[in-house]
Amino acid sequence: MSAIELEGLTRRFGTFTAVDHLSFKVEKGSIFGFLGPNGSGKSTCIRMLCGLLQPTEGRATVNGFDVAKDPESVKRSIGYMSQSFSLYRDLTVGENLDFFAGIYGLRGARLADRKKAVIELTQLGPYVDRQSGQLSGGWKQRLALATALIHEPEVIFLDEPTAGIDPVARRELWDLLFDLAASGKTLFVTTHYMDEAERCSDIAYIYLSKLMVIGTPAELKSLPEVSPPNTKRVSVAATPPAVGLRAAHNIEGILDATLVESELHLLVPEAMTNETILDGLRQPGLTIGEIREISPSLEDVFVSLTRRLAKA
Ligand SMILES: Nc1ncnc2c1ncn2[C@@H]1O[C@H](COP(=O)(O)OP(=O)(O)OP(=O)(O)O)[C@@H](O)[C@H]1O
Question: Sorted alphabetically, which SMART domains does this protein's record hold (predicted)?
Answer without folding.
Answer: AAA
